[in-house]
Amino acid sequence: MSTLWPDHLFLVGCGNMAGQMLARWLACGLDPARVTVLRPSGRAVAEGVRVISEYPATLPPGTTILLGMKPYQLADVAESLAPISDGEARLVSILAGTRLADLRQHFPAVRDIVRAMPNLPVGIGGGVTALCADERTAVEGYAAVEALMSPLGLVERIADEGQFNEVTALSGCGPAFLFRFIDAFARAGEAIGLSAEQAARMAMATVWGSANMAKQAADSPGVLADRVASPGGMTREGLNVLDADGRLLKLMTDTLTAARDRGEEMARGG
């Protein structure tokens, strides 16, 4: 897997998401000697990874920069980082709500700029990472970023950057929505008479097994659901509740719409 890795990886910030990404890359064979992390605290992140608290005078040739700090810090970061980021550097941003045009404005010398939206399961190789680049980014540069993201899970190129809020609502926010579902599923089992501990274990195992089955199946999850449900049986009665008046679809659509709209408000500074 060595061909996946850039000559050098420079992380600006190493919070929850960037930390999950780095942990997965290291687990998949990235040499920690190729990694430098800039974080004000200077706190260690992983064995062998160099951590600095101030910007270096130069970056090694072939550096891929990952912007993993808070979006509001972009201007301050760029003031120090842009002067040492030339056309050979490659920039990947996981900053929510920060458009490619904004990144171009702050890093005018960098040719390859890719916007990425990962979700938390990237840390176990089961994540989703959406990518978007503009016309200035070279084909090979985009492909290199795509390859770097591949150990994290599913990688999807998004042609229209305007859809990034929809992508974020679905896959970026999605783990939280699914965690909430699993919690409600378990609590419902408790409500009908199971112990809390047993319901939690069974709900988790059911979700895990069903998700893996759906991933491997040739049929859609909707078809699989109908196959499980015998006419007049217990499963069908339960599905009738979920399906009545399209209530489950409406609930999920309303959930994603609320998340998407909030993303648009944040992008406008709201």
Radius of gyration from CA coordinates: 22 Å
Quick check: average pLDDT? 94
Order of helices and strands: EHEEEHEHEEHEHHHHHH
The description of the largest β-sheet is: 8 strands, mixed
Summarize the structure.
The chain has about 270 residues and is of the alpha/beta class. The chain is about 45% helix and about 15% strand.
Plain-language structure description:
The chain has ten helices and eight strands. By secondary structure, it is of the alpha/beta class. It has an eight-stranded mixed beta sheet, sandwiched between helices. Helix 4 links the parallel strand 7 (127-133) and strand 8. Helix 5 crosses helix 10 and helix 6 packs across helix 7. It is elongated. The two termini are 43 Å apart. The mean pLDDT is 94.
Keywords:
8 strands; alpha/beta; eight-stranded mixed sheet; 270 residues
Secondary structure: elements and pairs:
Elements: E1 8-12, H1 16-27, E2 35-38, E3 50-52, E4 63-67, H2 74-81, E5 90-93, H3 100-106, E6 112-118, E7 127-133, H4 139-149, E8 153-157, H5 164-172, H6 174-191, H7 196-216, H8 221-228, H9 234-243, H10 247-267
Parallel strand pairs: 1-2, 1-4, 2-3, 4-5, 5-6, 7-8
Antiparallel strand pairs: 6-7
Helix pairs in contact: 5-10, 6-7
